[in-house]
Amino acid sequence: MIKSERAPIIWALDTGLGKNLAQVAENRTLLDRLAVAFFACVCVAIALYGVIKPDYNWDMVAYVATALEDRYQDPAELHAATWAVISEGARESQLYEIQYGNPYNKHQWENPADFQSQLSMYRVKVGYIWLMRLMEPVVGLANASILLSVIPSLLVGALALYWLARENALQGAFVLAPLLMLADQAQMTTAVVPDMLLSLVSLAAIYAFVRGRDTLACVLLFASVFVRPDNIILIFAMLVTAVVFGWRILPLLATFVASFAACALISRYGGHPGWWAHFYFSCVQIQKSMIGFHPDLSLAAMAKGYARGVVVSLVHSDWPALLALFTAGWALLNRFGRAITSRQNGMLFALAIGALGKFASFPLPDDRFYHVFIIGMAVLLVAIWKPRFDTARIRT
């Protein structure tokens, strides 16, 4: 018996079904539409899951309490009002977890004054808290906090799809969809945190800047520090990039100065404990009370925080691997002559150093803290690459 030396894929394509699929694969319009449909289904499925099964976690409790804080002077009253809101929608298992899941949660559940002392680290997200209060009369605080992750998630997907369409790269949505999942977009959509909203505002700023609309980009970047003040790292990375790539420095310099001043005022009037106290709390040892917590600066403790961040990031997070992958992809696209504009090259540089700078300034390992940088690089690279499945050929 003579064995066929044809590859299995070639044999499959010679069948009737294979020939029909091959014809579909050569139809660019159809593939573009399928890519859009696939990407849209992924984004909608993530959003629906976020609405149906939101993650009632400790951060949600703290943000709801911060939104209620202007109405209650007494910590016990604030504590009771917060848990009344949370208890309305949380499942029994979720309530148990955020009340008794670990010693820290248990202490916050049992000690209203210490619970309120934690809010100084949440109060600085003034734009996020303002939007929660704005939406409260319509949907309630708990649903407002959930929707502020779900709606931005859908809009991030819509903006990414629009971006690919403008770059004539719609088939790249087949590639971008799984990258969104690896970048933790599903978890960020179900979690009640401001990071998805930050990614939306920042991605819009990145797109505006790549398209040459500097004023709009700078306005959006300035607005982003009211969602999360630490997004000033992205602004600083873009300022450095402007110097390196010879762009107009003044708009980004003005944005950085204004954002730095805004962050300083937000921190001062929000009662933020300061960088080192927050670093110690988040990266070295969690504190059950922030009342009077002013630890001495310790190089040993700082080294411990960075070591923990590196190990946990490499073992449990995806952003370091994605950053390495995207940096390699960027190099390959340049190496093989893809048409990359100065704005695109510069923005990829800014996002790469921004991700590293974000970790250097505060070594938290979770993917959600780097989503702004990772998703920005992903969309940029796919838009530059413009993968075309209809023109691909299988070698025989």
Automatic annotation (TrEMBL):
Domain of life: Bacteria
Keywords, comma-separated and alphabetical: Membrane, Transmembrane, Transmembrane helix
Record has Membrane as a keyword: yes
Residue spans crossing the bilayer: 34-52, 138-165, 185-210, 231-250, 306-333, 345-362, 368-385
Protein name: Glycosyltransferase RgtA/B/C/D-like domain-containing protein
Higher taxonomy: Bacteria, Pseudomonadati, Pseudomonadota, Alphaproteobacteria, Hyphomicrobiales
